[in-house]
Q: What sequence folds into this?
């Protein structure tokens, strides 16, 4: 998942993204640091909306 790269491009901290998306900061950290491929779809959707990216863009590297 490209969350780390996209978050960095947008210049957002974990806390800021958590506030924008409603996804707990700890969950965002786990996704980035542990590269969790078992993330709940509802969290991915919320993160995509907050970052203004498509699910295809967010998850592109999962299908390579």
A:
């Amino acid at each position: 998942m490209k969350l780390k790269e996209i978050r960095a491009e947008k210049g957002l901290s974990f806390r800021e993204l958590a506030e924008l998306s409603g996804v707990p900061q700890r969950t965002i950290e786990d996704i980035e640091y542990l590269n969790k491929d078992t993330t709940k779809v509802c969290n991915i959707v919320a993160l995509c909306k907050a970052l203004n990216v498509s699910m295809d863009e967010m998850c592109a590297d999962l299908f390579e």
